[in-house]
Amino acid sequence: VQWRQERTDIKNESIAEPVPLPNQLEQKCPLQRDIEELKNTVESIRLALASHERFNSDARSRHSTPNTTNLSQQMDSGLGEMSNVPDALGRSTDSIREDDSFDLLLTNIDGNVSEEDIQRMVARSLGARDNEIIHVKKLVPRWVDCSTLDYISFKVVLNHKWKVSAMLSATWPKNVRFREFRKVRCPWRPETV
């Protein structure tokens, strides 16, 4: 046991830092400055990442089902603003091929909102031109009275160049939820016996 204690004391003494000589201090100064600069850089990167995470904190809610609430009062004020946007109907789809588009799901929208209102809102929010919004489809069966629903959803087909902007929560009005509308290539079927 004493041998271990002596060996530990010897190791601790050898680990102790020697007193630097004056010429070693001069050599350490540039290294210390570099270390301080790197620490500052790392700190600024950490702060940038933290702010980015706060900015995108609603990323998880983007794909979840929205809370069911009655939004008619909120949407009434928004409909007046939408009517000031130039009419976005009569869009030409000839200039855009199928593979140049992507589908977007917009949900948590009042049941009284029409496809034309959504088309104008999308054009205003993205700053899109006439041939860049291909199609808007209300995702509610025809026999259902939309005004009785808490919210409805729309499928919007856009030019692929708007995908990055369309996937940012800052692009859309408050309380509008969105996600990419993916085409399911392998639908579920019951297993055969």
UniProtKB/TrEMBL annotation:
An example Gene Ontology molecular-function term: transferase activity
Q: Could you tell me which residues belong to the region Disordered? A: 55-92
Q: Which UniProt keywords apply?
A: Transferase
Comp. bias intervals (Polar residues): 64-76
Q: Per its record, how is this protein called by name?
A: Putative glucosyl/glucuronosyl transferase
